[in-house]
Every structure is written in C-alpha cells, then in structure tokens.
UniProtKB/TrEMBL annotation:
Annotated source species: Eleutherodactylus coqui
Family named by the database record: Belongs to the clarin family.
PANTHER family noted in UniProt: CLARIN (PTHR31548), CLARIN-1 (PTHR31548:SF4)
Annotated GO biological process: equilibrioception; sensory perception of sound
This protein's UniProt keywords: Membrane, Transmembrane, Transmembrane helix
Keyword Transmembrane helix applies: yes
Cellular compartment(s): Membrane
PROSITE patterns, alphabetized: PROKAR_LIPOPROTEIN
Protein name (record): Clarin 1
Topology in membrane: Multi-pass membrane protein
Gene Ontology cellular component list: membrane
Listed InterPro entries: Clarin
Length: 232
C-alpha cells in the first residue's frame, strides 16, 4: 500500500482515538449514566393508591459515577436532593466494583491518548521498535477495548444485579421504602460503548494499512524458522 494511504489511515485512527478520549473524559464527569423512576412504596400502601393517584408517589433519579440527583415523591410534592458517591454512599453501594469502574474509565482515557500518539508517530515518524510499530498499535487498541468492555460489564452488573438505583433511593430513608419502577442507561454509558467499538474498528484500519495481525505474523515466523532448522 502506498505511504500516503497508510498515513491517511493512521491519521484517521489517531483522530478517532483522540475523539474517544475527549468524549469519555466528558462522560466521566457528568451525571448522565443512569436515569429512572422510583416508587415510594410505603406511601402508596398507606393510602392504597392506584391508577392516576400512583403517579403522586413516583419520583425520579439520575446519577453518574461521582454524583447524582433524586426527586422523592411521597404524595406531598417532589423533594429534590443531591448526593455524591464519595464518600457518602461507599457504605451502601458495592464500593470495590464502583471504584473499579472509575479506574478503568480513567485508564480508557489514558490508553486512548497513548494510542493517538502512537498512531500519529507511525503516520509521520519512523518506528524503530516493536511497541512503536504496528504491533504496538494492535496492543494499545486491544488494551483500550478491554478497558471499555470491563467498564460496561462492571457498571451494568452494579446497576442491574446489585440494584444500585434502589440502594441510592433508600439511602438514609428510615421510614419510607422506595422501589425502582424503571431505569435505563443514559448518554455517558452509550458513549463508552461507541468508543469501545471505535477502538475495535481501529484494529481493522491497521490491517487495512497492510500490517498482519500479530498472531498470524508469529505463526509465519515459526514455520519459516522450522524450515531453516530442517535444512541444517
């Protein structure tokens, strides 16, 4: 493949990686990871609310990785309150899992920036070592994909399996019990998913530039070395 086309492909992959780093950095700091509604079950049972009356006991909740907001509805109007995960909710939520999500999200930003620099170095520089060349590009893309997958899996498990929204809604609520009605992932979660797919697609851009996958290349080297051994 001509050098110009390789430069264009590497520049495209580097630009995509840099855009992913910026997008994930923005997603990390906002509270648009999960949005849902919670039912004040205690209040609804006290007045035996049904139908339209039940809407007076359904509040809202939304949160990110660091802070969020909830609106309690117990029949007397909404009561908006804000909360933060650190350090308020560490005794309520699965803290190790939540901290892991934050760490892997930060790592995803770092490795996306590292991948960007190496893509640009391969486009305009002269790679002279293994990790500076195509093998290194495959490595950074693989690490970025792995971090993105871990973020998605851990956060989904935290929300769905550990019922994170309910634990947040019932935080410091001695007399009322809240039950999650609906919950869905918001923009920040889908940004991480899209960026993970972008890093995966960068692997095929490297292959399109004319560089074989590392494993297939190693197999070719093994067969050639075996033939040389047989000759001698």
């Amino acid at each position: 493949m001509p050098k110009l086309q390789k430069k264009v492909l590497f520049c495209l992959a580097g630009t995509l990686s840099f855009a992913c780093a910026l997008a994930i950095a923005a997603a990390l700091g906002i509270q648009l990871w999960v949005r849902g509604t919670v039912l004040c079950k205690t209040g609804a049972l006290l007045v035996n609310a049904t139908g339209d009356e039940l809407q007076k006991f359904i509040g809202e909740i939304q949160y990110g990785l660091f802070y969020g907001q909830r609106v309690k509805q117990c029949g007397l109007g909404g009561r908006p309150t804000t909360f933060s995960f650190f350090p308020d909710l560490l005794n309520v939520i699965p803290a190790s899992m939540h901290v892991s999500v934050v760490i892997f999200t930060t790592a995803l930003i770092v490795f996306a920036l590292v991948g960007t620099s190496f893509f640009m170095f391969n486009a305009f520089g002269k790679p002279y070592e293994t990790l500076h060349g195509p093998v290194g590009l495959y490595l950074w893309c693989f690490i970025s994909c792995s971090c993105g997958c871990l973020v998605l899996i851990l956060f989904s498990s935290e929300v769905k399996m550990h019922k994170l929204s309910e634990k947040i809604a019932n935080y410091k609520e001695g007399g009322f019990l809240f039950k999650t009605q609906t919950e869905h992932f918001e923009n920040s979660f889908w940004i991480v998913l899209v960026c993970t797919l972008v890093h995966f697609s960068n692997v095929f851009l490297i292959r399109l530039a004319g560089f074989d996958f590392p494993f297939s290349k190693s197999k070719e080297l093994d067969t050639s070395s075996g033939a040389i051994d047989l000759m001698y």
